Amino acid sequence: xxxxxxxxxxxxxxxxxxxxxxxxxxxxxxxxxxxxxxxxxxxxxxxxxxxxxxxxxxxxxxxxxxxxx
Length: 69
Known about the structure:
The chain is mainly alpha-helical and 69 residues long. The chain has four helices and no strands. The chain has helices spanning 3-12, 15-26, 44-55, 60-67. Helix 3 crosses helix 4 (60-67). The two termini are 30 Å apart.
C-alpha cells in the first residue's frame, strides 16, 4: 500500500467516479449503481474506534463483540 493506493482511494471517494467504476467493471457499463444511492461506510479502523467508545476500554474480546452489534 503506497501513494498510488491512496491516490486511487481519494479518486473513488467521489460517488460519481465510484459508480462509474463499479458499473463498468461489474455490469458491462449498464447503469446499475447510482451515485445518489451510495452511502459512506465506516472503515475498519473507524469501526474499531466506535466499538472502543461503546465498550469504554480496549479489551479485545469486548471490542470484537461490539463490532458485531
